[in-house]
Give the backbone structure.
Amino acid sequence: MKQAVVIGISGGTGSGKTTLANRLKEYFCDDITLICQDYYYKSFDELSFEERRKLNFDHPDAFDNELLVEQVKLLKAFKPVDRPVYSFTEYKRLERTVREEARHVIIVEGLMIFTIPALVDLMDIKIFVDTDADIRLIRRLKRDIQERGRSIDSVIDQYLGTVKPMHEAFVEPSKRKADIIIPEGGLNEVAYEMIANKIRSIIEAKYTLVTKNT
């Protein structure tokens, strides 16, 4: 049965994993599908805004892991999915969805993706982006303030209260699952070129196989 190649890209908050994944998506465009774990945060609609805001979003259980695994399985089998859309300003999942078409290469990017055994089993290549904690904190501050409307105090409180301890408990140990560990994510040009060349060779091989069979 024809199957896509699934590449997992993980790392701590602000490590550069999203930058790396986005650079690859921008370069390869419709030749790859990019799925972010952030799309799959659970939606606690029964809670008030203030109650949702206080939830621990840095624990593996904060994500709808069953749906994520199910949709990656479908994409790997070359079937399209309607993935969820999550609002970081409302702390809830929106009613609309986005159709993602299956491609020869599926990139799954996220904080906790290596903590989900069923998801790890679907991955052909696992990449962990390793970046110093102080750099990650600065990047998270800039992102949450500029893109998610957070205050400096709320970002720091969340970092000390849940982000840092959850990183030490779950994200850092998951590094052992990786096939490749790279520093600085999308800013590491040598690593980026190596990964891009690997993806290019996968795509070319897949297209060659399709051409021979038609």
Q: What stands out?
A: Residues 189-212 form the longest helix (24 residues). The CA atoms of residues 129 and 182 lie 5 Å apart.
